[in-house]
Amino acid sequence: MRITYIGHATLLLELAGKRILTDPNFDPALGRFLPRVSAPGIALGALPSLDAILLSHAHADHLSFESLAALPRTIPLFAPASIAKWLRARGHANATALAPGDDVQLGDITITAAAARHMGARYAVDRWRSDANMYLVDARAESLFFAGDTALTPETGHLVEQHIKGRGRQLDVALLPIGHAPWWKFNFRRGHLTSDDALSLFERLDAKILIPYHWGTFRHVTAGAHDAIVRLRAKLPAHARGQQVRIIEPGEAFELERPSSPS
């Protein structure tokens, strides 16, 4: 398994002979006032051929219409139902709805969706487009969990508990977003993970490795691009599983080797 951090929530996942891109966003800025502070780890035009695209929700930092328009529309694109419907209306006939509890087969990989706790409506008023997904990507010999954007709730880990831990297996990689907000932004944790929340979820999922994302890419109104990762780094030396956290910069990749079969 190889995971490349392109930036924000855009990761290139390579496992079981397939390549999957999450939440593609290669934009130079979010709107007029939130610039990108680091170039995409892989330029959009330098991407390898893809077997699928996973979209978690409709927010502009996760769903870039410009980036999608530059990608071949022959690539299967899986998204929450309301987002898939919207994309098909915009000419993306490759968009397929994957509702919570649904799964789809991609070669030897099973991709299963679950609902995230995140208000994902694009423009706030379009509540009918507020669906947000998390995804389990399971190739049996290797597995990963991509959380999109979500709060920490009692249900956040159920997908892994049901399909991985409940079958006597251990999740290989947890891909979890980290964020930071000032103290007065009291509702932040209703739809996002802080560094502390991500570490708590990592423990709950009992994954072998945690790779954080959602940092180092865009400057936000109330937080810098690196605020969350600075806080996470500071916690790792004293954390019981700090050595199992892999922080990869945009453009860097992490490879998890399969265990050798006994001879």
Mean pLDDT: 95
CATH architecture assignment: 4-Layer Sandwich
The CATH homologous superfamily corresponds to Ribonuclease Z/Hydroxyacylglutathione hydrolase-like
**What is the CATH class designation?**
Alpha Beta
Helix-strand makeup class: alpha/beta
Domain unit count? 1
Tally of alpha and pi helices: 5
Helix content: 10-25%
Major sheet size, sense and barrel closure: 7 strands, mixed
Overall body shape: globular
Ends apart, CA distance between termini? 22 Å
Q: Tell me the β content.
A: 15-25%
Task: Please provide a written account of the structure.
The protein has 263 residues and is an alpha/beta fold. The protein has a single domain, classed as Metallo-beta-lactamase, Chain A (4-Layer Sandwich). 16% of the residues lie in helices and 24% in strands. The strands form three sheets. A seven-stranded mixed β-sheet has the order 8-7-6-3-2-1-15, with helices on one face. Strand 9 (103-106) and strand 10 form a beta hairpin. The longest helix has 11 residues, at 195-205. The chain is globular, with a radius of gyration of 17 Å. The two termini are 22 Å apart. The model has no long low-confidence stretch (mean pLDDT 95).
